[in-house]
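I am still learning, so would you mind making up any protein sequence you like and the tokens describing how it folds?
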Amino acid sequence: MLHSFGHPYAGRTGADWTSLTHIDVVGTKFDIRIDDRKIMERGRFLLQGES
């Protein structure tokens, strides 16, 4: 999973703000919850066949 912090590259994203720095972070083995529902555990999606 890639997370980015800082400069939004307004020409590509349409953002109306700026920053002097930009940092990309690549993480592994994340747990992700949305509305108290876990959808990823240790970097693997738990959702199967949902639409």
